[in-house]
Amino acid sequence: MRYQHFCTCSIPHVAGNCDFHGSCIQVETDKATVGFEILEECYLAKILVAEGTRDVPIGAVICITVDSPDHIPAFKDYTLEMAAASAPPAAAAAPPPPAPAAAPPQAPGSSYPSHMKILLPALSPTMTMGTVQRWEKKVGEKLSEGDLLAEIETDKATIGFEVQEEGYLAKIMITEGTRDVPLGTPLCIIVEKEADIAAFADYVETGVAEIMTPPPPPAPVAAPTPPPPPAVAPAAVPAAVPAAAPKDRVFASPLAKKLAAEKGISLAQVKGTGPDGRVTRKDIESFVPPKPAPAPPVEPAVAPAAPAPAPVAPTPAVAAAPTGTFTDIPISNIRKVIAQRLMQSKQTIPHYYLSVDVNMDQVLELRKELNQEVKADNIKLSVNDFIIKASALACLKVPEANSSWLDTVIRQNHVVDVSVAVSTANGLITPIVFNAHIKGLATISQDVGSLAAKARDGKLQPHEFQGGTFTISNLGMFGIKNFSAIINPPQACILAVGGSERRLLPADNEKGFDVASMMSVTLSCDHRVVDGAVGAQWLAEFRKFLEKPVTMLL
User: Residue 354's Cα: distance from chain center in Å?
Assistant: First the structure.
């Protein structure tokens, strides 16, 4: 049987396998139920995947569309097996012509020397886009394996991106400070020979240019504003007419057209963010109509020339006042992830809090003695080093606190990797002291010092802050007496440490009082993993180690 011209609709690569729910079309991915919209006008001739069908692979043909309703009967007995057999020729008939036409201009052909494109990699498991903070190399510089090429801000931290092969930097395609660069975007071009650098001087990568296009829109808005004469106002009206002229050629999804009609929005005014500039539902919902209000008020200037200057003077004065009342600070990728994780933690984890006071006199005395011993090695032990060691040993004694909630199981960890909260200019990050339970105080001190310095300089590598089984947040150095910290999922506990203060305590002989350095700590627990009695047992072990620090040697 010979069929007329038709198109096969396949499951798009949204995320993993999908479940088909019919309509036009609701697709359930591994993340959410997503509306799959038709990109062109057509007629639905055949549905090949029934509603409710689960685990449909990416690329599977789900329906047939045709250009004319007269062609619909031809597909009455069309089956999924027939679609699978005819999919290659159909795909070859329609899509290929546009693809090769677009490929030559953006992909270097034989006219370009041998080269390698460096794409933005995923530097953390949850990274979807990044910001190029700084280029460490300039065009023309020689690159060796392991050289630091650029500083990339991920959703976790700013990470150094190293060169994997030798060569010369021929072209930088993403400038410093460019935000929200998607994974897989070409960052730069490396060539083998220095003589090949000049060949890429004018090279432009399509798609990369679109990432750099946010600045242009403000330019046209600024242009019509400067001209003061009223004659410019009529000139602005014709400028809008050409924009409306190509209105019939604006590509928009059916849902976007419907929303635009309901809201009275002209599609010609909306900048589409979909494929090939197509206007989507999000574009309509986020559309803010232009404000050409300043132009009409200029009409009073057509009246007597004398009154015109009077209203113009107060207007800028009023506009200038509010501009100094606030500052909008762009949200970094790190801050976005911190906000998401903290909200997720407080909304999904049943927190509860336990507090105790710890006598720190013996720790302070032992610290003074040990610092004299390690002074020659340029090591200075801090109280925080003792807290990390005591926490790790308490986790061995009460392993329930050293566990993770993984939805289907509770994972009880056999090693204690302590995450230590460090404040940086970009936000909070928690580098990890691995195997803290078997490390000495001097080694812990060196690890914390090194990790904190790298965190503040944005030099941490992903493996140095991803993971951890227990977290400590210490604000004692800021004079905080006590506070409650938010659990770092999937961990089950976080210890909030306050500062030490001198207090009067009843003497052991019950005659009089002694003065002691007391420190308040609060343990935040996930009640799904750690019951109240278990949390109290952990704190008892922790306090025992600090009040008699020599027991940490046992």
Answer: 33
- Amino acid 184: pLDDT: 85
The span from the CA of 19 to the CA of 1, in Å, is 31
**What pTM was estimated for this model as a whole?**
0.52
Query: Taking the mean position of all CA atoms in its chain, how far away is CA 439?
Result: 34
Half-sphere exposure for 87 (CA within 13 Å, toward CB): 16
Q: Can 55 be counted among the known catalytic residues?
A: no
With tokens 């994997």, the residue in question is 164
Name the catalytic one among 5, 13, 180, 527. Answer: 527
> Element (H or E) spanning 236, and its range?
helix 232-244
Alpha helices (runs of H) in 360-425, residue ranges in sequence order: 361-373, 383-397
> Distance between CA 261 and CA 83 in Å, rounded?
37
Most confident among 183-192, 331-340, 380-389 (mean pLDDT): 380-389
For 239, half-sphere exposure in the C-beta direction (CA atoms, 13 angstrom radius) is 10
- Helix, strand, coil percentages (3-state) for the chain, rounded to 5, are 35, 25, 40
Q: For residues 339 and 346, is the Cβ–Cβ distance under 8 A? A: no
Residue-by-residue DSSP string for 204-227: --TTHHHHT-SSTTHHHHHTTSS-
Distances (CA, A) of 530 to 181, 349, 461, 526: 41, 12, 31, 6
pLDDT tens digits for range 8-62 = 666 655 444 444 444 456 666 654 566 676 666 788 888 888 888 877 887 788 8
Verify whether residue 527 is a known catalytic residue.
yes
Is residue 393 helix, strand or coil?
helix
Question: Widest CA span of the chain, in angstroms?
Answer: 106
Burial (CB count within 10 angstroms: exposed 0-12, middle 13-18, buried 19+), residue 374: middle
| Tally of residues, the chain | 554
